[in-house]
Amino acid sequence: MTQDVEMREVPVASNSVSSSVPLTLQHLKEIASLIETGAYAKEVRRIFHAVRLTIALRKKLKASILSAFLNSVLVPSSEAHARLISYLPKDAVEDMEIDTATSAAQGPLKHSLPEIEIYCHLLVLIFLIDHKLYNEAKVCASASINRVKSVNRRTVDVLASRLYFYYSYVHELTDSLAEIRGTLLSLHRMATLRHDELGQETLLNLLLRNYLHYNLYDQAEKLRSKAPRFEAHNNQQFCRYLFYVGKIRTIQLDYTDAKDSLLQAARKAPISARGFRIQCNKWAVIVRLLLGEMPERTVFMQTGMKKALRPYFELTNAVRIGDLELFRNVAEKFSSTFSTDRTHNLIVRLRHNVIRTGLRNISISYSRISLVDVARKLRLDSSNPVADAESIVAKAIRDGAIDATLDHASGCMLSKETGDVYSTLEPQMAFNSRIAFCLNMHNEAVKALRFPPNSHKKEKESAEKRRERQQQEQELAKHIAEEDDDEF
Amino acid sequence: MFIVCSKRPFVLPCSWSGFLRERKIERAVSRPLPYLRCERARGDVPSLELDSVALLSRHLHRRSLAMDPKLTEVSQIFERFKAAFVRSDFDTCRRLLSQLKVLLTEFPSLPPLFQKTANAVHELTLAREIYEHAVVLSVKTEDQDAFERDFFQLKPYYTDTCGLIPPSPQEYPILGLNLLRLLVQNRIAEFHTELELLPASALENPYIKHAVELEQSFMEGAYNRVLSARQTVPHDTYVYFMDLLAKTVRDEIGGCSEKAYDYLSVADAKQIMMFSSDQELAEYIEVEHPEWEIKDGSVIFQKAKETAPCKEIPSLQLINQTLSYARELERIV
């Protein structure tokens, strides 16, 4: 699951490794200068861009390149430099000496901006994780977190939020998530106090993930409902949030909201995040089944998901037919898949829906059927199937699943004539909900439009011009009006 | 007998395993009968050795506590509590329990502090046992609020002390009891949240399975299965909640019947709703469902059914919707 839910852009494959080494270093330096300008101009956007570029370089990172980069951007005698170098594997040290010589010649990049330092931390951490040096990565992550705590700059927030993510990620890989819960909570509090919304968003997700990893749905929901909410900054974080909310709601039987969140998460997730979308779809399928809806066939036929969704496809089929026997077989056949997906308990809940669908089918096909036959058709396996069938039918009638009456004396179920759906308000209601959805989508899209900063200033300058133009127009209008008057 | 025992030159290694065994045995002895029975049945404690070993262990237990006066005090009060518990003297129990709870707050090793003191293991085990008793006591005194409070106090001992003390044999019975309580109070969302916390293997445990199956039958509507489950309760303490559940089930059945049947003969109604006499049925109908009618030896539900839905166009709603569409379109164009 951890691997599946990972949501990251797939790095561009390098075509020539050998020639890319100096090139990579060059790229890293460019990124560093980008961060620098971003930090001076206080433009968070540039730092976002820098982080994106880094992810693309990820596969090409090597210890030698990293040490060269560290030498060039950090003051060699500084504490941060010494610490970061110590995390790198030892074989890089020989290369380092040569690099020091070259970088000393280049010279001009020497400075100690906190952004650059944090960026170096992030780079080293990513490198360590990619090379599976988890213990070093853990130490490095904790050190970075301590450093981040002491810096309070909005331009650092972007880098910090990435650091938090990898901090939690490395602990998840080593299965020690429970240890960092306290740290994450205090970081979240800190981010809230500093109005670091990006950090809050990231940390809230990490905490939710942390809780859900241990199935602590209660705590997760309590935290979620108490944490401050604001408009999402990062699409990926928002997707994750929706997914977690969907999961919590599903467990707490709030299926309608759960469905909305899960479907939205699946829709918003980037195409490359296939694993994440598969997870969303799995949960969404179950929630829709629990709601009594039938997911369309196309859901299971999406490219790249066909195989992963296969168990859920067969499950849907069993529910659609309303065959308890088949349902049991499917649940048994794929029980290992369901337990790794942690959906086993939800599938147990589905049994009830299978019975309902079966009952609905019976009620549609027969106008009068004995309860003995109902029990046989539903394949209820209990000591007293007829009595079970009677009370199950009674409950289905009360819940409005079927339109029928029971005759106890003759032991029969009498279905009522199904009326014409188009004579009811149902089509109108369905139509309304679709229109509402479309309108809402449009409004959200308008809200999500981004405008370049400072554009309103330009408008102010042109305000005088506009006044002039309006004046001219007014005069023109007066002229026309006078002309009109003249004609009379 | 106790004194005689203490004079004997017995030296048992106070090692880990020995200590654990001691605790378990002592617990078994001090419990009221039902516990004893169920532990014996599981073969934890060979019943023949039970008495002598228990006395010995209790003695050793006392001596090992001599170091810490606070711990000794708690253990002593707890012994008195257990004695009162066996006598079913619940008033004394309650009084002693509140004393115990106050005393427990002085141990730094207990949640949420979890300080690693010298006696941490001992204190945690003792505190867990006290809260387990408190939960069972609340069931016996039929106090659901107290149950909830005590259970939440107990829960950290089950979830957060995995590496510190060995799991309690009472864990699943009490968790199952809590599931049952949530079911009775119709807090299904919490029921499922609790269920998610249990590992897959726990679902096979008879105590948990009982509650899970009940929930399923309840959801499906197979009410007679819910009621027959009362005969197969895994533990005596479950009976209290099962009785409460039976009342809920009866209301459910009543609600379903009035929608599903046009009429029922009094005899059938009596059987379906599990009344032993016509008198009880009549009383129930009078109090809970005065709209039902008893006529010619049958219960008629017709009156309760709503009249045919009127085919009126909900004009106000439609106007509102259309206006909102217009407003939204205006905004777009």
UniProtKB/TrEMBL annotation, chain A:
GO terms for cellular component: proteasome regulatory particle, lid subcomplex. Residues 456-481 have a biased composition (Basic and acidic residues). SUPFAM superfamilies: Winged helix' DNA-binding domain. The keyword Membrane does not apply. It holds the Pfam family TPR_PSMD3_N. Residues 451-488 are annotated as: Disordered. Transmembrane segments: none annotated. PROSITE patterns: PCI (PS50250). SMART domains: PAM (SM00753), PINT (SM00088). The keyword Ribosomal protein does not apply. Belongs to the proteasome subunit S3 family. This is PCI domain-containing protein. The lineage of its organism: Eukaryota, Viridiplantae, Streptophyta, Embryophyta, Tracheophyta.
UniProtKB/TrEMBL annotation, chain B:
GO terms for biological process: proteasome-mediated ubiquitin-dependent protein catabolic process. Belongs to the proteasome subunit S14 family. InterPro entries: 26S_Psome_Rpn12, CSN8_PSD8_EIF3K, PCI_dom. This is PCI domain-containing protein. Residues 145-317 form the PCI domain. It comes from the Eukaryota. PANTHER family: 26S PROTEASOME NON-ATPASE REGULATORY SUBUNIT 8. Pfam families: CSN8_PSD8_EIF3K (PF10075). One of its GO terms (cellular component) is nucleus. Keywords: Proteasome. The keyword Iron-sulfur does not apply. The keyword Ribonucleoprotein does not apply.
